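Mods, move this if it's the wrong board.
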Amino acid sequence: MKAARWHAAKDIRVEEIDEPQVTPDGVKIKVAWTGICGSDLHEYLAGPIFIPVGENHPLSHDKAPITMGHEYSGEIVELGKDVTGFAIGDKVAVEPIYSCGKCDACREDLYNLCKDLGFVGLSGGAGGFAAYSVVPARMVHKMPDGLSLEQGALVEPAAVALHAVRVSTIKAGDTAAVFGAGPIGLLVVEALRAAGAAQIYVVEPSEERRAKAMELGATRAMDPTDTDVVAEIRAATGSGVNVAFEVTGVPQVLAQVIDSTRHEGQALIVSIWETEASFQPNTVVLSERQIKGTIGYRNVYPAVMELMTRGYFQAEKLVTKRIELDDIVAEGFDVLSSEKSQVKILVRAPS
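Not the wrong board. Structure tokens:
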């Protein structure tokens, strides 16, 4: 079967590999759609970050070259002999987290904080940029009737956004800022709206993405190349927002995120970073602000899909391009690198 495999930074190849074989505790999925994630783009431009090179990942037991793709959906075509609760033909969204189940975090059901955390399609395994995938049955979630398989490919990134909002200190009626209106930032806007945020300020240089943020429920969208966004946010709110979300991974933005919050406010870091970032600690100390990070998601897929049935995180508003697997580099990764008007690009699995 065809699969898109990471060999090195700037070296992703669509090549023929063997179909993965179902395991006793696994399900074989005919992949339908897979999204290109910001994490995938980081691996393409500057990897390896999550991708294991040289040594096998302790949980996937795999190393580069690996089949990429972790935002995906499909239909179950085969069940392992030990699998119950699923049937051939079930439409599923994949929750691609590898966790050991044994470390302190896992024993506390904080499996996204596992000491050996990994992701199918980033840390190895049979990722979604292929015709078929095999994953443990614990990683799949049946999709509600009425949700399309295209919508299913958005469950994973929407889970990142919803988890970020859930672990923040945001409360109904609070104010928020979102720095970065890429796919995750836009999904954070929707998650904030679902959580009852009264005002949502978005900072984003792309005009098209600012317009999309407004369409999805932002109160105001600002161009950081055109205005002092921290001053604008503080003027609009009186003393800053309750929570500011960092979703850019751009080092100089971190200080702006912190400065945009009020006293006792929170800066929540969602991005995966390629380099270090600095800030003046006194900006935190003298206002008793909080800085918190978030990674992935846990125990949130059912809530995401329920919100989808209520009109949140809709594919028709977020998907800007659909491409074939053969075109994943030229029409996917390269386009996302150069065209900031793109939001989410979905890859159709080969038949």
